């Protein structure tokens, strides 16, 4: 079997923040690869640097030192404005608290990221319909977030993240605000996205049960990778979504 080439390559990454005159080293000499189509979980104690690493890979922040490649792009060398442009096309974000706009319908929320891209209305309609269909919400298009359950709102969040056909989907505690049944559904959904669209997904989580649904879990402690666990396969059986 030919090994899949990594879609994300992080090489000797350092990130520090300054607090007054003090430098806080948050990530120290971190190297990792993420193969195309992998669902990767990042775990570790509070403050270990999980979100910082996710934000760097997603182009929301720039490293102090080291390289980050996503596909053929050395994103660690991009300026802030170049990074913003790159993110629009290449990264889909899923947040713990969904961040849907309450006055817009599910359809309009999913359509939002496409308004930044040069597309016709018909092309947008096709992509939004496809994304809502994939997350099983075709029959909730006109509902506003307030008329949907937490799990359904997060499904809208996933549809919004994948609608631009991004290179990467990043999810920071996507199940952190959900009950366990809805959390299971969301994790199943992320696995559907990975399998059907061959998307690479990187998820930060505190929940070992959530991490179990990923194919691999990297454990961080004090800004270093301390363990790399591969899961044989997702444990949950596909369920109706
Ligand atoms: N913009 C910033 N300025 C200063 N310090 C920061 C900044 N962002 C993060 N930090 C510090 O970096 C460290 C790691 O933060 P990070 O959010 O990456 O950790 P985490 O592992 O995701 O934690 P949690 O699980 O609590 O979300 C923390 O000590 C945090 O205070």
TrEMBL record:
Superkingdom assignment: Bacteria
Database matches in CDD domains: ABC_MJ0796_LolCDE_FtsE
Keyword Transport in annotation: yes
Alphabetical list of PROSITE patterns matching this protein: ABC_TRANSPORTER_1 (PS00211), ABC_TRANSPORTER_2 (PS50893)
GO MF annotation: an example: transmembrane transporter activity
Keyword set, alphabetical order: ATP-binding, Nucleotide-binding, Transport
UniProt keyword Flavoprotein present: no
Residue span, ABC transporter domain: 8-241
Annotated Gene3D superfamilies: P-loop containing nucleotide triphosphate hydrolases
GO CC annotations on file: membrane protein complex; plasma membrane
Family, similarity comment: Belongs to the ABC transporter superfamily. Macrolide exporter (TC 3.A.1.122) family.
Protein name stated in the entry: ABC transporter domain-containing protein
Source species taxonomy: Bacteria, Pseudomonadati, Planctomycetota, Planctomycetia, Gemmatales
């Amino acid at each position: 079997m030919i090994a899949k080439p990594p879609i994300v390559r992080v090489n000797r990454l350092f990130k520090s923040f300054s607090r007054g005159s003090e430098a806080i080293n948050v990530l120290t000499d971190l190297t990792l690869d993420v193969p195309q189509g992998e669902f990767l979980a990042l775990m570790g104690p509070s403050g270990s640097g999980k979100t910082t690493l996710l934000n760097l890979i997603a182009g929301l922040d720039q490293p102090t030192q080291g390289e980050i490649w996503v596909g053929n792009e050395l994103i660690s060398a991009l300026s802030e404005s170049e990074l913003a442009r790159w993110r629009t096309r290449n990264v889909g974000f899923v947040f713990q608290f969904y961040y849907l706009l309450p006055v817009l319908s599910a359809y309009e929320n999913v359509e939002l990221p496409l308004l930044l891209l040069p597309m016709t209305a018909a092309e947008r309609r096709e992509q939004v319909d496809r994304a809502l269909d994939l997350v099983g919400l075709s029959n909730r298009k006109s509902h506003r977030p307030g008329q949907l359950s937490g799990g359904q709102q997060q499904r809208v969040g996933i549809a919004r993240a994948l609608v631009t056909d991004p290179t990467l989907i990043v999810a920071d505690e996507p199940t952190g605000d959900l009950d366990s049944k809805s959390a299971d559904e969301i994790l199943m959904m992320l696995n559907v996205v990975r399998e059907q669209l061959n998307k690479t997904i990187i998820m930060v989580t505190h929940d070992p049960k959530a991490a179990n649904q990923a194919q691999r879990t990297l454990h961080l402690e004090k800004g270093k990778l301390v363990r790399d666990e591969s899961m044989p396969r997702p444990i949950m059986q596909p369920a109706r979504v």
